[in-house]
Design a protein that fits this description.
It contains nine helices and ten strands. The protein is α/β, with parallel strands linked by helices. α3 runs parallel beside α4. The radius of gyration is 20 Å and the shape is globular.
């Protein structure tokens, strides 16, 4: 029996040694989409993945303070580029993995279907413009449309902004299209904000210094950039990178 157990262990050791743990820091808006992709990645590669989700600004600060992440998937370009300035060795790993779209969501007391912000709500939820790129895009949209200033309910990230609207703490607000797709929000309750109202939400990823030596991180970046994976991302509410 002991000899049999040792034989099984010897057979498993090669596969175990090829499996690496991958830690991903991901912007809140991309969390659901990432989870839909990970099962296939883990099954195909044998790697295990742990994710931490927060605003891009918060994750950036954590990485600067040596948080043990291998890949940073930001909701903007600025923070990964600033990280690369701090750690020049990772600059060559910068890549765009998605282009986000902003949605105005009004679940109650609006004229449907929405074709804009026809009536300024009493309370409007947005993500923190200083920390979250979708929040900054929302602020630009409010300014571009010259919306009369309502009471702003500011969430730390786009996920919290969504919860403010869902719970009724805000009458309406700005969320990511990917959130609307994931929650199956009725299309008539949403207005897809034209891209000329705000700067493009180019979501950029980068390996961290720790990730440079992690085979699982390298495999994941390759997987995320494949046309087949990008097609799945587009189905989740992002503008396609490959037409």
């Amino acid at each position: 029996m002991i000899r049999f157990a040792l034989t099984i262990l010897c057979l498993l050791l090669p596969s175990l040694s090829n499996a690496d743990l991958l830690r991903i820091a991901v912007a809140s808006n991309f969390t659901h989409t990432l989870n839909t992709l990970l099962t296939e990645f883990e099954n195909d590669t044998g790697h295990d993945v742990e994710i931490s989700s927060a605003s891009s600004g918060k994750l950036y600060a954590q990485i600067l303070h040596r948080a043990p992440f291998d890949v940073f998937l930001s909701a903007d370009t600025d923070k990964p580029q600033r990280l690369a300035e701090q750690f020049p060795k990772i600059e060559s790993t910068l890549f765009t993995y998605a282009t986000g779209r902003l949605v105005y969501w009004c679940p109650n007391e609006c004229e449907y279907p929405l074709s804009g912000i026809s009536k300024t709500p009493d309370t409007l939820a947005i993500a923190n413009p200083r920390l979250a790129p979708y929040g900054f895009a929302a602020k630009q949209t409010i300014e571009a449309l010259e919306v009369s200033t309502p009471i702003l309910v500011t969430g730390e990230n786009i996920g919290q902004a969504y919860r403010f609207i869902e719970s009724g703490h805000a009458q309406a607000g700005f969320i990511a299209l990917s959130q609307a797709v994931a929650a199956e929000i009725p299309p008539e309750q949403c207005w897809l904000v034209p891209e000329h109202h705000h700067a493009a939400i180019r979501q950029t990823g980068v390996l961290t210094p720790r990730g440079l030596s992690n085979p699982a991180a390298l495999a994941f970046v390759t997987y995320l950039r494949q046309p087949e994976t990008q097609a799945q991302i587009a189905q989740q509410g992002y503008a396609p990178l490959y037409d």
